[in-house]
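Subject: for your reference before the review

Hello V.,

The reviewers asked for a structural picture of the protein, and I figured it would be easier to keep everything in one thread rather than splitting it across files. Below is the amino acid sequence we used in the manuscript, unchanged from the supplementary table.
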Amino acid sequence: MSRMMRAVRAGKGVVEMAVPSPEPGQVLVRTRAFGVNRPELLQHEGGYPVRPDQTDVLGLELAGVAEQSGEEVCALVGGGAYAEYCITDERLTLPIPFQGDDRFVRAAALPETTFTVWKNLFWDGPDTLKGKSVFVQAGASGIGTTAIAMAKAFGASRVTTTARDDERCKFCTDVVGADVCYNYNTEEWEKEEKADVILDMVGGSYLPRHLKMMQQGARLVILGFLGSPVTEKLNMTRVLLKNLTITGSVLRSAPDSEKARICEELKRHVWPRLASGEIALPHISHTFEGIDAYADAFEDMNNSKHKGKMVLRL
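And here is what came back from the structure prediction:
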């Protein structure tokens, strides 16, 4: 008779289902905590389609104990983390870099943001940002806090960001480590800053503003559209005259081989700095208890009550 577990399926909520069986190259992990991310909320509401071959169990990241080896691990997954057991690709599984009773909670908040930031800000390896000015939109978000901390740790000369109110701006500078944070509701950041690299999750009307502040040879990386994927008529002359690069990516749809490369680079360059405390991540504002609390987490995320990451502990 199959072992059973509780899991959260997109659009259905908490259900009982069979514990999955790992195939060669996979690891069955008993979940101790998982990160809560906006794509999961959107998927649950029907607004984030996934590949037909992926599970409809929610969740992109988790921490727990590998069933066969007993190792404590965290992992990036294409789905399935909102469950008492989860299958992970052994190439995308990392050791937990922390000690202490909260190590599973902290580790569960790492994979999705660290993989995303490394993929998009460190395209030429750990020295990519050395001496560069980096501008990060939405600095109080999970991606934002990770991007700020990692850019500072790997030699960016200046890291600036935005947030929606003065409280979050203070959090970005005093806690996360940004050099300056602009309140995007009251300040015209594009008139104050010049940037070599911009990380954007907003889109829409921000594109022409970004083009104005980009230095010669700068790069704009678009990760999402919290605002809109559409902008008004735009004069692209600056892109030519300033030799600009505009690019975008979605981590979830990237080939597993690319994710495996990123995982190895994180293990080599980032995980030791997390273990030593040189990179002070993650920043977790909300921790929820028990799998049924996913609905409370989604409500808080919908209302943008969090700063940094949210985690659910099993």
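For the response letter, the relevant points are probably these. The chain has two domains: 4-110+282-313, 114-248. The domain at 4-110+282-313 is CATH 3.90.180.10 (Quinone Oxidoreductase; Chain A, domain 1).

Happy to draft the paragraph if you're swamped.

O.
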